Amino acid sequence: MSATRGTAWPFHPWLVLGAIPLLGLCYVALDSSAFWEGTMSRGQVIGRDFVIFWGAAVLLWRGDALTLFDSSVFLPTLDQIIGQKLAFNPYPYPPSSIFVVWPVGLFPYWFALPLWLLSTFAFLANRLRRSRVGWPAIIALLVSPASIVNICSGQNGFLSAALLCGGLLLLERRPLLAGILIGLLSFKPQLGLLLPLLLIAGGYWRSFTAASMTVLLLVVASLPVVGQEGWSLYVDKSMPQQMDFLQHGSGYFQHMSPTYFMTVRLLGGSLATAWSAQALGAIFVAAASLWVFRQKVAFDLKIAIALSATALFSPYLLTYDLMIVPVAILLAARCTTWHWAEKGVFLLAWIGPLLAILPVPPLGAVFLSLLFLVILRRTVLAARQGPLRT
After folding, report:
1. Residues in the chain, pLDDT under 50
2. What is the pTM of this model?
3. Which residues cross the membrane (predicted)?
4. In the chain, where does DSSP find H-type helix?
């Protein structure tokens, strides 16, 4: 089986460019309805989570780097910067992430927000175009539900997708650059938990080394800015707070998290049951993905498996992180012809990020699991046919 390089659609293109964007617009309307009476509502600003990045960058330029990693100081300081009592908005990223957010502090908030979204999506589009993903597919990504959620949240989903997808897609052609991109993804470590194992399983040792060195250099480079104290604050205060929020947070946050862990919690399961479900699911997707990376099958199928596995492996994943899912669907779709039932699974996974605002059972992890299993089945069939011929 050989991978086709043209634009292949997992379902009818008019559905992607028509009906699904309409659902996205409905999401925008519902999500932004609380802002209609003013520029601020529910203790949030328009752009929502971007206020964390921008406020952190402002503090970095002021020389107050340590403030970022102690929420008891960061939260009231952020209120002062914005001039408004905000919702709970801690800075949950490691000290090495300062190089990601630092530039946005050079601009006023209302200019920095669109610049952030446009530049990070342009980076994602550039990485995909260099892997011969067509413009129609990239436009479909821009209007996908995951993209709409990321834009409404002012989040970093475009950037993390660009680094993860871009790095994986370069493994065979430019292994050193692939490793650097994957290493830069360490600003969001929960998305990289499975990657070292996949690189080792696939024999991508140059990428593994480059990624490891990139992470190490980022840590070392952060020390003159945050010092050892900054890392101590992150480990002693920020990380435990994130764990507490994951386990005991409630409300909208829970519905935005399509993980095995949160699915069990939303269904009323105990913490022990939730962690057991997450562990079992993670072990399965890890084992299956590692097997795939050792097979001689279409490269795009391998990357689609890696992306869908990444979405299932971590217990801490939110809807704006799901930009990697439509990329996985589009990569898988151009490898072969898919059955209508498989396309139905693609469609469910594509619209999955919209579930957070709908009064429906927690099905996000179910849709992602079905996507993983569908792609895995085709990969197993491809492996049985023997080595890929190009």
Report:
1. 1-6, 36-41, 388-390
2. 0.90
3. 12-30, 50-69, 99-125, 137-170, 176-201, 208-227, 272-293, 305-333, 345-376
4. 13-14, 20-32, 50-62, 71-82, 98-101, 109-129, 135-142, 145-153, 157-169, 175-184, 195-201, 205-233, 239-248, 252-255, 260-266, 271-293, 299-313, 324-333, 340-351, 364-384
